Amino acid sequence: MNINHLKGQLAKPQPLFLGEETAFRSAVLIPLVEKEGEWHVLFEVRALTMRKQPGDIGFPGGKIDDTDASPLAAALRETHEELGVDQQSIQILGHLSPYVVSPSFVVYPFIGVIEPSELDAFNKDEVEELFTVPLDWLLTHEPYVHYIPIEPKPSIDFPFDKIANGENYEWRTSRMEEWFYEYRNYTIWGLTARLLKYFVAKIK
């Protein structure tokens, strides 16, 4: 191996993390709307007829398709499909660091401003209702957290004979944080709450 060739290969653009190129990639928009001179974060409640996560609270977004030019393009497309908002009317303010849920799942979050007048024709096949939370409220109310233990469970055909200590190998356990915001009669949790918490911390 020629060391200069190796150096050249390492200088080429690389994925953000190992596995990014094969991971399930999605993009979301954290929408801001101005109401009566006050900034709010917009949320959607998934339609109760949806096959996956009916009734959950989230941001507009979804899977990045092969036809999407970028994660941002996917976030804008999904926002248009779910909220009926003209993509050209969304003012993108910036983005957050990608959230690597696992080596096989990553979310790219963007922040953008939507005009309230654009929200009159959301897709009722995907969205049950829309609501907003004042940004000032989010800046002054901390979420609470619950922990979910995660313990590896190898399959019955795992090659224990290939590793030190075999079936007595001490697997590393961990726990997953689940954050919760309670606003009026809405509970914001899961991936949405995690992105929201990071966004609020970023702007404080």
From TrEMBL:
Annotated Nudix hydrolase domain residues: 23-157
Gene3D superfamilies per UniProt: Nucleoside Triphosphate Pyrophosphohydrolase
UniProt entry tagged with the keyword Metal-binding: yes
Domain of life of the source: Bacteria
Cofactor(s) recorded in Swiss-Prot or TrEMBL: Mg(2+); Mn(2+)
CDD domains xrefs: NUDIX_CoAse_Nudt7
Swiss-Prot/TrEMBL keywords: Hydrolase, Magnesium, Manganese, Metal-binding
Protein name: CoA pyrophosphatase
Source organism of this protein record: Solibacillus merdavium
